[in-house]
């Protein structure tokens, strides 16, 4: 897909605020600080469209980004951030679950994991939960610019020890928002998921 245009549309905290034009949506989920907002900026070729931060917990709402007039990316609040209060975490949790389980426009989920580390318990839980949503899942191992070439080769089998990447709806993709390696494969997966 060629991106001619992208724009931020809304930070939503409830379903009444979600866009109503019925375009397909792709959600991006993953731990706080894993690089969701950076990936959105990288693939849309925008420096600062999605707010990124070295401080985890930056994105706290469902943020909708319109890509051309083809689809929305939905930046989901990161999980696993200890400093968010219990009540707030529960509130996010309900909003996210509600969105993921009931949104008819949702056509795929990009689940980001940090290529440098084994998936966390939160990652494993999120992945197993996502398998039940009956939508295509793209597991993106990001920040691979920080890995040696030899480690990149072993990444899929390493992550496959905790996440069952052999499931038919699951695709695995090593990525870096710095180098944008595999960006063409990323867009291929998006195109296939929304058609
Ligand atoms: P929350 O909104 O808090 O959930 O975080 P996020 O998942 O949106 O992470 P964000 O994109 O803000 O990135 C967090 C940090 O990781 C920033 O300092 C980014 O510069 C860095 N980062 C993200 N992607 C990459 C990558 O591919 N390579 C490297 N080296 N750094 C990255
Ligand atoms: Mg973010």
TrEMBL record:
Known cofactor(s): Mg(2+)
Q: Where is the EngB-type G domain?
A: 22-195
Q: Does the keyword Flavoprotein apply?
A: no
Output the Gene Ontology terms for molecular function.
Answer: GTP binding; metal ion binding
Q: Name one GO cellular component term.
A: cytosol
Could you provide one GO biological process annotation from this protein's UniProt record? division septum assembly
Membership in a protein family: Belongs to the TRAFAC class TrmE-Era-EngA-EngB-Septin-like GTPase superfamily. EngB GTPase family.
Which purpose does this protein serve, as stated in its record? Necessary for normal cell division and for the maintenance of normal septation.
Q: HAMAP family in the record, alphabetically?
A: GTPase_EngB
Q: What is this protein called?
A: Probable GTP-binding protein EngB
Native organism: Lactobacillus iners DSM 13335
